[in-house]
Amino acid sequence: QHPKDLAGRLVVISAGGTRERIDPVRYLGNDSSGKQGMALAEEALARGAEVVVVAGHLDVPAPRGAEVISARYTESMRQAITSLADEADVVIMAAAIADYRPANQTTTKIKKIDEGDETTLRLVSNPDILSEISHRPDRGNVVVGFAAETASGAALLELGRAKIRRKGCDLLAVNEVGEEKGFGRDENTVSVLDASGEVLAAVSGTKRDVAEAIIDQIVRTL
Ligand code: PMT
């Protein structure tokens, strides 16, 4: 039985993958299913929180009891998170957000070229939502990021430490990702770092087990 240690708290969770339009029928995307974000939403609800899920593309439904705001594209996710960040007690950025968008978006379908010919898609870097909400002056809430890295062991943790310094959040859940890891799976392996880079918890299990460990650390930080 969970303690209701998030009673009276508003927890905003981004989940799933964002997309970027290339043309009216094509997009850039990623393999995030939203399972980790939904497990966090379930755990936060079980512990008494009011939960808002800001949902990119999801392969799984949001839990009953969570309010869902649909934000399939990076800019709509940015707007939704930014407008909720002030009132939220906790913001957890579990979404896999597109780092790049096409430099030019056409309103007509891009034409096929001859087989074997090359073409180029120019990309520009997107704003970093986690960094923006973490660096707001007088921020009073707990902001939690994720780091998805294709490294392992000590190298993975070093990438996580560099990322939490850069992004400025309070806690960072570092997970190794790859074809058979992280994205889309039912299990996950996560280390939770604090702002000084110390490992507060390390957990391997279902995404709900991981969510429980992350929320334990959030409650201690609140
Ligand atoms: O959805 P699942 O299939 O269950 O998979 C779970 C997961 C692997 C997607 C999840 O556990 C995870 O790691 N989510 C974060 C994925 C990611 O985009 O990581 P990153 O290292 O590229 O980004 C670091 C952090 O910055 C993340 O909190 C991300 O939400 C945030 N970010 C990234 C880019 C950007 N432009 N703005 C951001 O806010």
Automatic annotation (TrEMBL):
Keywords on record: Decarboxylase, Flavoprotein, FMN, Ligase, Lyase, Magnesium, Metal-binding, Multifunctional enzyme
Keyword Ligase: yes
Cofactor(s) listed in the protein's UniProt record: FMN; Mg(2+)
One Gene Ontology MF term: FMN binding
Gene Ontology biological process terms in this record: coenzyme A biosynthetic process; pantothenate catabolic process
Note on cofactor: Binds 1 FMN per subunit.
DNA/pantothenate metabolism flavoprotein C-terminal domain: residues covered: 6-220
GO cellular component term, pick one: phosphopantothenoylcysteine decarboxylase complex
Binding site for CTP: 99, 109, 127-130, 146, 163, 167
Region of interest: Phosphopantothenate--cysteine ligase: 11-222
EC number: 4.1.1.36, 6.3.2.5
Catalyses which reaction(s): N-[(R)-4-phosphopantothenoyl]-L-cysteine + H(+) = (R)-4'-phosphopantetheine + CO2; (R)-4'-phosphopantothenate + L-cysteine + CTP = N-[(R)-4-phosphopantothenoyl]-L-cysteine + CMP + diphosphate + H(+)
Pathway per the UniProt entry: Cofactor biosynthesis; coenzyme A biosynthesis; CoA from (R)-pantothenate: step 2/5; Cofactor biosynthesis; coenzyme A biosynthesis; CoA from (R)-pantothenate: step 3/5
Protein role: Catalyzes two sequential steps in the biosynthesis of coenzyme A. In the first step cysteine is conjugated to 4'-phosphopantothenate to form 4-phosphopantothenoylcysteine. In the second step the latter compound is decarboxylated to form 4'-phosphopantotheine.
Recorded family membership: In the C-terminal section; belongs to the PPC synthetase family.
Descriptive protein name: Coenzyme A biosynthesis bifunctional protein CoaBC
Source organism (scientific name): Pseudoclavibacter caeni
Top-level taxonomy: Bacteria, Bacillati, Actinomycetota, Actinomycetes, Micrococcales
